[in-house]
Amino acid sequence: MSGHGAEIVTLPKINPADAIPADKLVFTAEEKAQLQEYKSRYPEAEGAVMRGLWFAQEKFGFLPPEVIRLVADELGIEYARAYGVATFYTQYYKQKMGKYVLDVCTCFSCQVCGGYDMLHHLEEKLGIKPGETTDDGLFSIQGVECLGACGSAPMLQVTNGPYVFNLTEDKLDALVDSLRSGKMPPFTSVTLPQDEEEMGGNRRSDAAAVATYQTPPVAGAVE
Ligand code: FES
């Protein structure tokens, strides 16, 4: 679920308009108590770093360096530890994102099933590149690593929430229309079929709608 492997990641430049004013850059007494409660669940304070960052993201909307530092200070851990975790996972937003963040999986299984086609379709439809947000603040898109639903590739996740499986361009168009009208897709749990019969030969019920995927990787036949 990470996005960056071992590469060294730097935080993006924050648009000055999105900066959190100093007087808002605080946890309330209740929030501090909540963070301490998370901390108390683990033998080491560092154990609470993921929950603490998530908590901060829920409050501030994203995790610029000053928020990462605030969490680290509150938990009493090194900033570098919190920074490392925040930058490792794409689910932690390092810059202000749109209301709906469309995480398109481009990891192996999704990639060979057209994950990049799906990402490129969204780029064209929304007029933004991965990491960018539409001018109306509604949509951000990202290419992300495996989200653990490879059996339903290609897939995406909406704002760290519902998954949308077996993507096609039509399905993406319907999703964007639905989100524009404020309707999130329902949460659907991923269950894998237990045998071939249940699979019905092809789990992609909409496979016929997709002729070929256009974007890499393009594999030749293996003789
Ligand atoms: S490769 Fe896309 S969910 Fe695993």
Write up this protein.
The chain is α+β, with helices and mostly antiparallel strands and 223 residues long. The chain has two domains: 16-88, Orthogonal Bundle (Arc Repressor Mutant, subunit A); 100-209, Glutaredoxin, CATH 3.40.30. The chain is built from eight helices and four strands, in the order H-H-H-H-E-H-H-E-E-E-H-H. The chain has helices at residues 29-40, 49-60, 65-75, 79-88, 108-112, 115-126, 169-180, 196-199, and strands at 100-105, 139-144, 156-158, 163-164. Strands 2-1-3-4 form a four-stranded mixed sheet, covered by helices on one side. Helix 2 crosses helix 3 (65-75) and helix 3 (65-75) crosses helix 4 (79-88). The longest helix is centred in the N-terminal third of the chain and has 12 residues, at 29-40. The protein is globular and about 45 Å long. It starts with 28 loop residues before the first helix and ends in a 24-residue tail after the last helix. 29% of the residues are buried. The mean pLDDT is 86. The protein binds FE2/S2 (inorganic) cluster (FES). FE2/S2 (inorganic) cluster binds next to helix 5.
